[in-house]
Automatic annotation (TrEMBL):
It holds the Pfam family Mab-21_C. Its main location: membrane. Residues 38-65 form a coiled coil. It is found in: Cell membrane; Nucleus outer membrane. It is a single-pass type I membrane protein. It comes from Semnornis frantzii. This is Inositol 1,4,5-trisphosphate receptor-interacting protein. Residues 1-15 form the signal peptide. GO terms for cellular component: nuclear outer membrane; plasma membrane.
């Protein structure tokens, strides 16, 4: 501030000293050209005025800076009570923000199976589907009776025939295997759509899983992506199976990892009880130079064993047995002399600990999605628990509940559309997962048979929203609401939810093809259903409103 005042005074003194009338030229006379003098005075006055404005601006800036410094000093000298009050409000704001963020995450992860049953959720379907007409109740009932029930009546006899033959084949397989060196095969179990009574498209194929175990003194020790081991994101849902001796701990003895020297012996493992060499581990179907079970080796072993077993019992049957696909371990086809055939799958699996979760060597996948990460990574199947859950929840539903009917209709429509426009990234397993989510969140009375139309719409809306978000979570993994009666392993309930649509995020072309197929199915839905619908008199349907969405 004093410096500014000094500068102003200095400018004023300089102007006075340099004034032409105060100190005239040496001639002592006033110049005759007064206009020229006045002009120069005006110019000098203008320059001084500009200088004065500049100095005033500097003074104003200094005053502003001084005020900022004084304000900062006041903040520094603030009382401890005010500091505490400000810190309290800051902490409270942070706590509120964190609570909101945690609630948002819980809402997304804990309610990922919410169906959004309100009418506002219809907007999710977008502009392209607002004009899509939905078949009315009478048309759906006629379609289901003619197309679904009319073609699935002989499934029970087919299951009985396949199970009986599979038991005989596996008994013969045990007799041709070396009990001291080969894998031990257990009884088979039926899983999938044929045993959950919702298979609709021919040919009907029975899926049977066959648990197997290594010969003594070996055992399987499994590791999953959610057991604490590091698995990359593309290996979620998979696990590895290590072949160990029964007395070995999971980490293994240190003598396998350290050179003890010629004069030192391991007190736990004698020379006769050392780990088998690489060639013998390969005999146990392990990947080369590892102790991890190889799915490709298991497939070759199983196909050879099934071939030997059939050669032993073929004389008892009046049909032929062959492999329909060599890329699957037990894709078999029975061919009768009449020309008819029955297809079924025998797939070797490994039990996860003492549960009914199984590692499956070859899992049916969409042809548009990439294969397994490697042959030592096994996919986990929860098919046994899925079948039990459907049976358990069906006991609480009204008689002739429409949950299976909805799944059958949706499976038929999607399969028919894929036969017209090519394969899609959607599978029947995705469709079943949608039904499982809705079974858990919808009240039991909502599945009454007269609600078939409404529940089918719910499934389509739920599926469309999942496609839009590229998120369809596995029903069991990360679901803490699984009924206790199932005895489901807690480790999978506590795991992070597994997104079955993760491949759509990585493969945009597959996602685009899948969405286009789904949209085309919606547009063709009425035509596809009417194609298989018995004629309904016009008087009966005239009063029924065709709902659109």
């Amino acid at each position: 501030m004093p410096v500014g005042i000094f500068r102003v005074c200095l400018v004023v003194i300089t102007a006075i000293v340099n004034h032409p009338l105060l100190f005239p030229r040496e001639s002592g006379t006033v110049p005759e050209n007064m206009e020229e003098i006045i002009q120069k005075m005006k110019e000098r006055e203008q320059s001084l005025r500009l200088e004065q404005l500049r100095l005033e601006q500097e003074i104003a800036d200094q005053e502003a800076r001084q005020k900022i410094v004084e304000k900062a000093a006041q903040v520094v000298e603030e009382s401890p009570e005010e500091k505490v009050r400000w810190d309290m409000w800051t902490a409270l704001s942070m706590v509120i923000f964190l609570l909101i963020e945690l609630w948002r995450q819980d809402f997304q992860e804990g309610n990922w199976q919410d169906t959004g049953g309100e009418e506002d959720d219809m907007a999710v379907l977008g502009k392209a589907f607002k004009g899509v007409s939905f078949p009315d109740k009478a048309v759906l009932a006629s379609f289901y009776e003619k197309r679904i029930l009319g073609t699935t009546g002989d499934m029970a006899r087919m299951r009985e025939m396949v199970e009986g033959f599979a038991d005989d084949l596996l008994e013969a397989l045990r007799s041709v295997c070396n009990r001291d060196a080969d894998m031990e095969v257990e009884d088979c179990m039926g899983v999938g759509s044929m045993y959950e009574n919702w298979r609709v498209r021919k040919p009907f194929v029975c899926d049977l899983i066959v648990p197997f175990a290594p010969p003594e003194p070996y055992c399987f020790r499994s590791q999953t992506w959610c057991s604490g081991d590091s698995f990359p994101p593309d290996e979620q849902g998979y696990g590895t199976i290590k072949v160990c001796r029964a007395h070995e701990d999971v980490a293994g003895c240190i003598c396998d990892k350290t050179k003890l020297g010629e004069d030192m012996l391991c007190l736990l493992h004698s020379q006769a009880n050392t780990t088998r060499p690489s060639s013998e581990m390969e005999d146990l179907l392990c990947f080369k130079n590892t102790q991890y079970l190889d799915a490709d080796q298991v497939m070759k072993w199983f196909q050879i064993a099934v071939t030997k077993a059939w050669n032993r019992i073929s004389h008892k049957y009046e049909f032929d047995l062959s492999f329909s696909l060599l890329d699957l371990p037990g894709a078999l086809k029975i061919k009768f002399r009449s020309g008819k055939s029955i297809a079924f799958n025998l797939t070797p699996v490994v039990q996860y600990e003492n549960s009914d979760v199984y590692f499956i060597s070859h899992f049916p996948r969409s042809s548009l999605v990439a294969d397994l990460p490697s042959s030592t990574h096994w996919f986990l199947t929860f098919a046994v628990y899925e079948r039990r859950f459907i049976q358990l929840i069906s006991k609480t539903l009204p008689a002739n509940a429409c949950h299976i009917s909805c799944l059958q209709i949706l499976s038929f429509l999607h399969g028919k559309q894929c036969s017209l426009t090519g394969p899609s990234g959607l599978t029947n397993y995705h469709l079943k997962t949608v039904m499982l989510h809705l079974l858990q969140v919808c009240p039991s009375q909502d599945w009454a048979p007269e609600n078939l139309e409404a529940r089918l719409q719910d499934m389509l809306k739920f599926l469309e929203r999942c496609l839009h978000e590229k998120k369809l979570y596995h029903f069991f993994i990360g679901n803490g609401r699984v009924p206790e009666e199932l005895g489901f392993p807690i480790i999978f309930q506590r795991a992070e939810p597994l997104n079955l649509f993760r491949s759509f995020v990585l493969h945009r072309d597959v996602y685009r093809k899948t969405v286009d197929t789904f949209h085309e199915m919606l547009r063709n839905m009425s035509a596809l259903i009417n194609e298989y619908t018995v004629h309904i008199p016009h008087a009966h349907t005239n009063g029924i409103h065709k709902e659109s969405f």
